[in-house]
Protein 1
Amino acid sequence: MRHKSVLTAIGAIAAVGITLTGCSSNAPAASSGTITVARLSGSDDKWKSIADKFHELNPGLTIEYTIIPTDSYNQQMGTRLSAGTATDVLNVFPGSGNATAVRSLAKNGYLADLSGEGWAATQPESTTSATSYEDKRYMFTDVATANTLGGVYNAKAVQDAGLKIPTTYSEVLTFCADAQKAGKVAYALGAQTQWVTQLVTYALAATDVYSQEPDFNQKQLNKEATFQDSKWLESMTKYKEMFDKGCFNKDALGTSVDNQTAMVADGRALGAIQISTMANSMTKANPALNVQLAPLPATDTAADTRLAFGLGVGWGINAKAKNADGAKKFLAFLASKEGSAMNADKFGVAPNGAIEANEINKLEIPFVEDEKTVPFPDVDWPSPQVQNLHLTGIQEMLGGSKTPKDVLTFMQEAFTGALK
């Protein structure tokens, strides 16, 4: 199963430190000039430091960033690639689940083949499928930047409300009710920002669907299973139940991801169901914030719970890059021990390249060590349209114009149509 092999790879990193190194002898030949890089917004200080260090090591090369908001990245990058105006290097998502996922872009000829790069041979085998198309690797992603998905809690706000982080689904509903009594929102939800809408489903489905059927995605690809006639319906129904019972802010459909972040940072909300990297934005808004990460339970048996876990957004090189040599050298730096250490997410499961519990991730580490993790499901979806219908469908479901089964049926139609 993919999630086990990913964690085996991370376990190897834990034993020897970050080993995803690109030896200098394998780096591209020296080049000069500007390397243009499109990246998602956020972590500006980190990426400035990375650019400065890269320039220090390569004085003839300068990094020039184009920063694009996450919620408009797919549209903007798609337009730039089709118009031939894209940057040399760009953020690329694993798998095939959205318009800037590696398989989608490589299929359309937008990415350069990176199979022959020195760092490619050092990558964990478990990353190959999610970063490749037709047996060629078109993407680099660092396991040390992998995301978890679940509750991102304001630990002090939870404690001040006299509550504890839930470990069963019934406790989730009680947590929501008790938060309301304390004058708080249990989970801030920025459902105005489309990409945020999918996260609650993914967190619940990790347990509802994939703890019982880890091969569910393959069954779908074999046309042996559908969203609407599976445990996906349970996850979607629980999402709606949480909304109806006040687990989220009442104006969730009019709340942006930035406002969601602010609600957790200032304690109006006890937490949010988000990817772990969003804790960076929360602590930037409130440097004194104590973050606690935990899986979102979906059943009343705590042993059933699985942690949603996915490779982070990575990097590809434009097939029409103006500075291809420089672009390859930048990816080689990101794959090096020094580059990986600078890029590692302190809110991840391996913030220093090693899996070890700390005050932030201590409720997640047992799931990683026991291999109770599940990849984000959209990695294997055959068309970005499936995800698009999920995003818009959730908004319509929360708004009352579609049922959970309606949303899943439309998603399945797009999924099946892409297999023809």
Protein 2
Amino acid sequence: MCEEFGNICRAVWNVALDQRRQYRRRGAWMNYVPQAAELADAKKEHLWLKAAPSHVLQQTLRDLDKACREHGTFKVCWRSKARWSPSFRFPAGNRVVVERLGRKWGQAKLPKLGWVRFRWSRPLGGEIRSATVSRKGRHWFVSFLVDDGLKTPERHAIPGTAVGIDRGVKAAAVTSDGDFHDRPFITDGETKRYRRLRQRLARAQKGSRNRRKTLDAMNQITGRVTDRRGDFCAQTATRIVTKNALVVLEDLRIKNMSASASGTIEAPGSRVAQKRGLNRAILDKGWHRLELTLTSAARYTGTRVVKVNPAYTSQRCSACGFVAENNRESQAVFRCKAAGCGHTAHADVNAAITIKHAAGQAVSACGDLGISQSAKQEPVSRATGRTPS
């Protein structure tokens, strides 16, 4: 039944998105209200639509309406049967009943699905607002949105504390305090097995049962990697926001940074293989997921998350503010080339301190990120604010 509900929601999404695009090509608009009315009429003609709860299909149209308003009608993706994992949401929390059966198991009563047993992983901790059922690999999951009644504290428990975070490809996150947060998300054995599965997938016939088995085996590996990355981001974010009232990040355009360098067939890009390796490293470290997790965890501690311009943060000296391209001698070594400075530190730690300074925490140099500052500018004394003679 869950598979059937997911397929119906996918069909409703694709038909509604196609309708919106046809309207936009004619210069007209289509939104949730008329589409919801047309959905009610379509259920009279197409009886298979009645298999799924009405409010689940209406929620699909609401999600599509929100996606089109935020990203644009022609940038919203279709839901492919082969690539999209089925999911649907029950928005009426008062129609969802949850009971605990024991230490490890519970059961939930969902509309049209009835009582469904699930693995009890944590207490709900509040009133249920909605329930989302989704499939990941071979398993189905249910997640509950609850109102825990908590409010964001007006002040952090340790006011006045701040930290800058530099995200990299060697270490996922390095703080201005000198802490390195990183862990491997995939083992060597899983890497070899995944490579063999990709070779097997290339030889499998499309639509065959062997191809489906190979994809399921690949999804098991990628699912474990995703879970480890999520666990790492959650633990790292909790530790950081608990100790700091201000967290400073670089305002990175991760989507642009991880874009392909292949270009077009007529004008292929340069160093495509090198750029492909960098893209994989950026996506593997979960930069965006860490940022989202920090923002979410900050609601419970009253921490402010600030993003600053990333220009020259890896080339600027955190001690004197001197900017030069050759300040960073290697991936890990930073040595200031300014006369009379010679500050030496780990390159990622120096960048994290510079990011912290950029948010107004003991601002160095000219008080900005040095976008217009010459690389040959003389170092500025932080104590007097003047250039030494």
